[in-house]
Amino acid sequence: MAKVVIFGILDTAELAHFYLTHDSEHEVVAFTVNREYMNSTEFRGLPVVAFEDVETVFTPGEYHFFAPMTGRGMNKNRERVYLEAKAKGYPFISYISSKATHFGNEIGENCFILEDNTIQPFTTIGNNVVLWSGNHIGHHGRIDDHVFFTSHVVMSGHCHIGSYSFFGVNSTIRDYLNVAEGTLLGMASALYKDSEPWGVYIGNPPKKLPKPSYETY
Ligand SMILES: CC(C)(COP(=O)(O)OP(=O)(O)OC[C@H]1O[C@@H](n2cnc3c(N)ncnc32)[C@H](O)[C@@H]1OP(=O)(O)O)[C@@H](O)C(=O)NCCC(=O)NCCS
């Protein structure tokens, strides 16, 4: 059991508090955000402290950190907070729903894995990865760091998912694909071939948009 400080005071942080409280052994003790976003000193009945000096109030030796943020900015915002909290010396938790199906897969830190995800055997998941609800994560695959799966995505077997990639709702990835770093696959879109780094693909069959993903999402 860890005492946990959650980053954020918006929906995702509120959901993380709910899931950790109702479906984990951990105890949430506080929230933290950057000082400029602090509009209250309390959220969900717990203290909110400025991220700039959170380590002086909740010492990294005693407390764990959790930053389950959205995929906005192609996951770079979440990466920044994750790395800054790591530099402060915090250990991280990951949350894996008791309603997810998995088989002792290797899963990194600061991952947020919600209900109804199926992670098949021999697939590994890196650090700072979000699997929102209901994804199929096929066998013999690899998901690198800072990736975001929204909901009901099918990642077929033997796929490699590069860092920072983002998959819209109901999107589909063919088996044996190498999905390059920073790929954005739009909602209800399908990827048939390996993608290019920071490429945006929409539709089925997919069309590659001219703008790179970091200018799109
Ligand atoms: C790919 C995406 C990021 C593009 O967003 P955008 O830059 O705001 O694009 P727009 O909505 O302005 O659409 C641009 C054009 O592409 C089309 N388009 C957008 N997404 C599409 C998709 N997934 N499939 C097919 N066509 C799509 C639009 O119809 C529009 O066509 P038009 O120019 O002929 O009118 C967005 O559509 C998407 O899929 N986001 C993921 C949403 C999601 O899954 N959210 C889950 C909650 S986190």
UniProtKB/TrEMBL annotation:
The keyword DNA-binding does not apply. The keyword Acetylation does not apply. GO terms for molecular function: acyltransferase activity. Substrate binds at residue 73. InterPro entries: AcTrfase_PglD-like (IPR020019), Hexapep (IPR001451), Trans_hexapeptide_repeat (IPR050179), Trimer_LpxA-like_sf (IPR011004). It comes from the Bacteria. Keywords: Acyltransferase, Transferase. SUPFAM superfamilies: Trimeric LpxA-like enzymes. Signal peptide: none annotated. CDD domains: LbH_AT_putative. Transmembrane segments: none annotated. Gene3D superfamilies: Hexapeptide repeat proteins. Pfam families: Hexapep. PANTHER family: ACETYLTRANSFERASE, ACYL-[ACYL-CARRIER-PROTEIN]--UDP-N-ACETYLGLUCOSAMINE O-ACYLTRANSFERASE. Belongs to the transferase hexapeptide repeat family. This is Sugar O-acyltransferase. It comes from Rudanella paleaurantiibacter.
